[in-house]
């Protein structure tokens, strides 16, 4: 989704685009696929707006969810995180076994760590990613070990 589409959606729904709302939307748009808690949003807004009440932020997050601009996920500690979803064409990162060709999804939080590093160290803004790791899966690894052991016991 593009920023202009979001502002259009707000207008279509007769919702005002306040400076606070606009900044919240921009925080998400600048970090696609990165989850933020309401507290983190408040922290990022402090520089420009001072203390923004969490209630205000939650209201905006609810509105953005109604408009399907952001999605919500609940993480391990039970807190809600909100994120701007990656584009439809986004390819999930996988690990592929060179022996049996099985593929396993890589949890994307690991790549978000790389994304945060790229942003803070290199000021590189991550937009999307594509990643494939090649190796030997556990099943194939065990099978090879067994075969090797079998051979050793014969000789
Ligand atoms: Zn395998």
| Low-pLDDT residue intervals, each spanning 5 or more residues | none
Strand-and-helix sequence, N→C?
HHHHEEEEHEH
| Spatial sequence of strands, sheet with the most strands | 4-3-5
What is the CATH class name of the largest domain?
Mainly Alpha
Which strand-content bin applies to the residues?
5-15%
Bound molecules: zinc ion
CATH architecture of the largest domain: Orthogonal Bundle
Number of helices: 6
N- to C-terminal distance: 64 Å
Mean pLDDT: 87
Named CATH topology of the largest domain: Arc Repressor Mutant, subunit A
Rg (CA only): 22 Å
Give the overall silhouette.
elongated
The helix content, as a percent range, equals 40-55%
Notable traits:
155 residues; alpha+beta; Dna Ligase, domain 1; 6 helices; elongated; binds zinc ion
Describe the SSE topology.
Layout: H1 3-12, H2 19-30, H3 38-49, H4 54-66, E1 71-74, E2 80-83, E3 94-97, E4 103-105, H5 109-122, E5 132-135, H6 138-154
Helix pairs in contact: 2-3, 3-4
Bound molecules: zinc ion.
Zinc ion binds near residues 97, 99, 102, 137 and 139.
Task: Kindly describe this structure.
This protein is an alpha+beta fold. The chain has 2 domains: 3-83, Winged helix-like DNA-binding domain superfamily/Winged helix DNA-binding domain (Arc Repressor Mutant, subunit A), CATH 1.10.10.10; 94-154, Ferric-uptake regulator, C-terminal dimerisarion domain (Dna Ligase, domain 1, 2-Layer Sandwich), CATH 3.30.1490. It is 50% helix and 12% strand. A hairpin with a 5-residue loop joins strand 3 and strand 4. Helix 2 (19-30) crosses helix 3 and helix 3 (38-49) crosses helix 4 (54-66). The N and C termini lie far apart (64 Å). The model has no long low-confidence stretch (mean pLDDT 87). Bound molecules: zinc ion (ZN). Zinc ion binds at residues 97, 99-100, 102, 137, 139-140.
């Amino acid at each position: 989704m593009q920023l202009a589409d979001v502002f259009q959606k707000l207008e279509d729904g007769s919702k005002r685009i306040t400076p606070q709302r606009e900044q919240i939307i921009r925080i998400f748009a600048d970090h696609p696929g990165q989850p933020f808690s309401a507290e983190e949003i408040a922290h990022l807004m402090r520089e420009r707006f001072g203390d923004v009440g969490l209630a205000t932020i939650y209201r905006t997050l609810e509105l953005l969810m109604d408009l399907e601009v952001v999605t919500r996920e609940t993480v391990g500690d039970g807190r809600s995180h909100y994120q701007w979803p990656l584009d439809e064409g986004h390819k999930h990162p996988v690990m592929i076994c060179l022996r049996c060709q099985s593929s396993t999804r890589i949890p994307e939080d690991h790549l978000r760590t790389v994304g945060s590093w790229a942003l803070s160290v290199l000021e590189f803004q991550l937009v999307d990613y594509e990643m494939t790791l090649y190796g030997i899966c556990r099943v194939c690894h065990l099978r090879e070990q067994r075969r090797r052991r079998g051979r050793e016991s014969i000789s």
